[in-house]
Specification:
alpha/beta; globular; about 130 residues; 5 helices; Rossmann fold
Length: about 130
């Protein structure tokens, strides 16, 4: 199973002050995703997508930290759709987002969608 996470959608689903330190929130999400992925089946593949690369970069040996080619409105959404479209097996992909337009776009490509707030609660329970 492959999971593609709309990073800022998951971060932004709770108004916990993340906007005061965006990079810190992104790094915390990557840490949580690493822990979550480590507790899943060995074949799990997790990618988190952000609008633009964090500065300094956030690296992970467990998950893929990706970003759009350019920082603009909906650029992360476009990158997520591109990842789904380029997959050999989009029906094996679950996109984590609560963005209605993105959900529709990836479902039209064969992927499933998991709500961002529910996923964040899962991450917080670990």
């Amino acid at each position: 199973m492959r999971w593609i996470v709309d990073g800022m959608n998951v971060i932004g689903c709770r108004p916990d002050g993340w906007w005061k330190d965006r990079r810190k929130a992104m790094a915390a999400l990557v840490d949580s995703l690493e822990q979550w992925a480590g507790g899943q089946d060995p074949g799990i593949d997790v990618t988190v997508v952000f609008e633009k690369p964090p500065t300094p970069p956030i690296h992970s040996a467990t998950i893929t930290v990706a970003h759009a080619d350019r920082a603009a409105a909906n650029s992360a959404d476009d990158e997520i759709v591109r990842l789904v479209q380029s997959a050999d097996d989009p029906q094996e992909i679950c996109v984590v987002t609560s963005d209605y337009a993105l959900s529709t776009r990836v479902r039209n490509q064969g992927a499933t969608v998991h709500p961002a707030a529910a996923f964040r609660r899962t991450l917080e329970r670990q």
